[in-house]
TrEMBL record:
Protein name: Methylated-DNA--protein-cysteine methyltransferase
UniProt-listed Pfam families: DNA_binding_1 (PF01035), Methyltransf_1N (PF02870)
Keyword annotations from UniProtKB, A to Z: Cytoplasm, DNA damage, DNA repair, Methyltransferase, Transferase
Membrane-crossing residue ranges in chain numbering: none
GO molecular function: methylated-DNA-[protein]-cysteine S-methyltransferase activity
CDD domains hit by this protein: ATase (cd06445)
Span of domain Methylated-DNA-[protein]-cysteine S-methyltransferase DNA binding: 70-149
Classification of source organism: Bacteria, Pseudomonadati, Pseudomonadota, Gammaproteobacteria, Alkalimonas
Biological role stated in the UniProt entry: Involved in the cellular defense against the biological effects of O6-methylguanine (O6-MeG) and O4-methylthymine (O4-MeT) in DNA. Repairs the methylated nucleobase in DNA by stoichiometrically transferring the methyl group to a cysteine residue in the enzyme. This is a suicide reaction: the enzyme is irreversibly inactivated.
Database matches in HAMAP family: OGT
Amino acid sequence: MIECMIQGPFGAISIRTNQQGISAIHFIKEEAALIAPTSALHNEAARQLTRYFDGSLQRFSLPLAPAGTAFQQAVWQALQQIPFGETRSYQQIANAIGNPKAVRAVGMANSRNPVAIVIPCHRVIGANGHLTGYAGGLEKKAWLLQHEQQPGQTRC
C-alpha cells in the first residue's frame, strides 16, 4: 500500500493505493505533514479531488479497489450511482441493491466506506431528510452536500 497526503478544504486528506487502484481516501483529523504524490495514480487522484473541491469536477473516473464484503461492495457500487448534487435515503439504497429489509446493514456498509468523497457516502441521508452519521463528521458531510449544490464556487 502506498500513501500520499494532500491538502483539502478542511485539512489533510490521505490517498492510499494498491496494485488494483485507490484503496482508501480518508480525512486526517490531526495535523499531518503532506506527502507528495509518488505515482501516476496518486497524481490523478489528487488532480481529480482538487477539481472536485474547486467545483470543476462532478464525476470521478478513478480505478477503485476498496476492500470489503460482497454486501459492502454492492452498497458502495450503489452509492456511486447517486448523481452529483443529489441524495438518497438508506432505504433507497437498500431497494437499489435488491434487499429492501437491509436498511441498517446499508447504514453499516455506508459507515465503513474506505474511499470517502469518490464513493459518495456523504450523499446518503435519513429518510426524513436529516443528515445522519458520517465518518468524517457531520460538518464535513454538510459542507460536501452544500458544495455540490453550488458547483463552480470555491469555499473554504
